[in-house]
Amino acid sequence: MNPQAKLIFTISLMLGTTITISSHHWVMAWAGLEINTLAILPLISKSHHPRAIEAATKYFLTQSAASALILFSSMTNAWHTGQWDITQMTHPTSSLILTSAIAMKLGLVPFHFWYPEVLQGSPLTTGLLLSTIMKLPPITLLFMTSPSLNPTLLTTMAILSTALGGWMGLNQTQIRKILAFSSISHLGWMAIILVYNPKLTLLNFYLYTLMTAAVFLTLNSMKVLKLTTLMTAWTKTPSLNAMLLLTLLSLAGLPPLTGFLPKWLIIQELTKQDMAPTATIISLLSLLGLFFYLRLAYCTTITLPPHTTNHMKQWHTNKPTNVLIAILTTMSITLLPMAPMIFTII
């Protein structure tokens, strides 16, 4: 892709995200979401492969429908209340439509069908954007409207997302699809606590972004897309493989790694809200996701020889990328042991 075009699309992504997260009017938030959608489409389809074109088409149709529902819900709320402010979403029907629309944008169950297919058809760097930056504006909208959202609907969608994200990821061999179902499962944890403690949702999202960025950048550095390719990585890049192993275990939520911190706090908050059965259910369902994380981690420790000479070339990486991966991985591993000290300072 032309560097100037890539720069324009990147600036547009940052602009659209900034407009949405800083706006108070629904029309401005909708405009930011549309800018984001139009900016990411060329990045999804830049390989001109039929699968990439299909992924871009699916993404465009889904996001357009979700944006239209967001605009419709805001207009309905303005019709009944006379308010266009994002924080004044008080009409029940409008809140219901808005929750469905944002769930469609994020890929929450039952609006998750597009997400694994789009991520599978995208390059790893674009997949990183889809899994992190593109989720920030919808989550921000949920954060600002959280007092008026329906707790029962969000809890149901969260439990279904955690269950389906873990269940569907069990039989996948494509790493991008595994990470897509992982994202769906993590979104369930974010959604279940949104009404009761929105700050925990943001903390979960920030730590998920940190760990996912480390995983995607490591996989992109090693040019790994399938489990069979991952099995040949140990002999070529042992240090990257070791960091990937620890980051995957952190993403799974194993203590004492960073990924356990948001789950620990969410379970604690749900217990305080007299929702111990719900906390137990979502904790047990997350064990499904833990299984395929452990399978990924196991594949990083298997040593198989590369098959061809061309296969050997893919392990060359540049030093700046490795430094960034090392920093992200270190944070993905050590934030939980440091948490008591951080909370004491705060």
Sheet having the most strands: none
The count of domains is 2
Overall 3D form? globular
- Annotation, overall tally of beta strands: 0
Q: Uncertain spans, ≥5 residues at pLDDT below 50?
A: 307-316
Task: Write the element-wise H/E pattern from the N-terminal end onward.
Answer: HHHHHHHHHHHHHHHH
Structural class: mainly alpha
Strand content: under 5%
Give the helix level as a range of percent: over 70%
What is the CA-CA span between the terminal residues? 45 Å
Task: Count every helix, treating DSSP H or I runs of 4 or more residues as helices.
Answer: 16
Task: Tell me what you see in this structure.
With 346 residues, the chain is an all-alpha fold. It folds into two domains: 1-143; 150-345, no CATH class. Helix content is 76%, strand content 0%. The protein contains 16 helices and no strands. The chain has helices spanning 3-22, 26-44, 50-81, 92-106, 114-120, 124-131, 136-145, 151-168, 175-192, 198-222, 227-230, 238-252, 260-272, 276-301, 309-313, 319-345. Helix 3 runs antiparallel to helix 5 and helix 5 (114-120) packs antiparallel against helix 9. Residues 307-316 have low confidence and may be disordered. One of its GO terms (molecular function) is NADH dehydrogenase (ubiquinone) activity. This is NADH-ubiquinone oxidoreductase chain 2. Keywords: Electron transport, Membrane, Mitochondrion, Mitochondrion inner membrane, NAD, Respiratory chain, Translocase, Transmembrane, Transmembrane helix, Transport, Ubiquinone.
